[in-house]
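Example S7 (structure tokens).
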């Protein structure tokens, strides 16, 4: 994976989606889940 793929898409949304909405601290991506059955299991939990 390229570094630019992990860069927050601020230019698209005009916000920084990897900033904590509560404290403003920086969040980081720790996993990328792209398997539908895993996503469904997580969301239905």
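Recovered sequence:
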């Amino acid at each position: 994976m390229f570094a630019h793929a992990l860069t927050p898409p601020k230019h698209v949304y005009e916000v920084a989606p990897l900033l904590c909405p509560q404290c403003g601290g920086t969040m980081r991506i720790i996993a990328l889940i792209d398997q539908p059955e895993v996503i469904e299991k997580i969301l239905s939990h």
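Notes on this example. The chain has a mean pLDDT of 79.
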